[in-house]
Specification:
alpha+beta; SH3 type barrels; 3 domains; 5-stranded antiparallel sheet; 4 helices; 30% helix; 34% strand
Length: 226
């Protein structure tokens, strides 16, 4: 289908070019004619891009309405396919906001859209969040300190599929130093529950403000490595 559109479009432009050449006494095409040819070429390219986008959406069952927000964690190249060795499209600067769609566990990457172009980024290069507003905690002048660490239980399927990575959470540490809530900020679907279960068992020396313990939201990273 793509080859047919490209071939038809280029053949039409060739005939268009020849017609202008014959009509022009000098045998040259003026700037207005060149602009028209460039416009026709752009239309062909736009058609090809739309077909590729529809094919990608169908292949990976992407629901355009079901999207998350995300931000790059470093300068990274947008991949044309899920595989790490696939052709790259463009470089996305660190801290760039993206639209995030499906997670592909077998490739450990996300389907994203940047500047209206779909592509793929590995989990290590993107912070994925929900569409909800960011949770804010109370102020403190002394941050909480970890007292009791609980090693997460490695999920069997994740171990079998050799899935590794870091899950980043925000945990709510109350005045007694216990974790009463955990929210995934950057997740790996196969590891998220294990990370939350471990985090909920952590014990901290609570944060303080003016010498008094206070409730706070605090970032926490849990790494899974085989």
């Amino acid at each position: 289908m793509l080859k047919k559109i490209l071939t038809t479009g280029l053949f039409s432009l060739f005939l268009y070019f020849m017609a202008f050449s014959q009509e022009n006494d000098t045998g040259k095409i003026n700037q207005e004619d060149l602009d028209d040819i460039e416009y026709q070429l752009q239309k062909i390219q736009d058609s090809l891009n739309r077909i590729k986008e529809k094919r990608l959406i169908k292949t990976y069952n992407i629901n355009i309405k079901d999207k998350k927000s995300g931000k790059t964690l470093n300068d990274v190249y947008l991949r044309s396919k899920p595989d790490k060795t696939s052709e790259t499209k463009t470089m996305i600067p660190n801290g760039t906001n993206l639209e995030v769609f499906n997670y592909l566990p077998d490739k450990v990457c996300w389907v994203v859209r940047y500047n209206e172009v779909f592509g793929f980024l590995g989990t290590e290069s993107i912070l994925v969040t929900s569409n909800t507003t960011e949770i804010k905690g109370s102020e403190y002048d002394t941050k909480p300190k970890l007292k009791t660490y609980v090693k997460p239980t490695y999920p069997k399927d994740a171990r079998k599929n050799k899935i590794e990575g870091k899950v980043i959470l925000k945990v709510f540490i109350n005045k007694s130093g216990s974790v009463s809530e955990a929210v995934i900020l950057q997740g790996i679907p196969e590891l998220n529950n294990a990370a939350k279960n471990a985090a909920m068992q952590y014990k901290f020396k609570p944060a303080e403000l003016n010498g008094e313990p206070v409730d706070v939201w605090f970032p926490l990273g849990i790494t899974f490595k085989l």
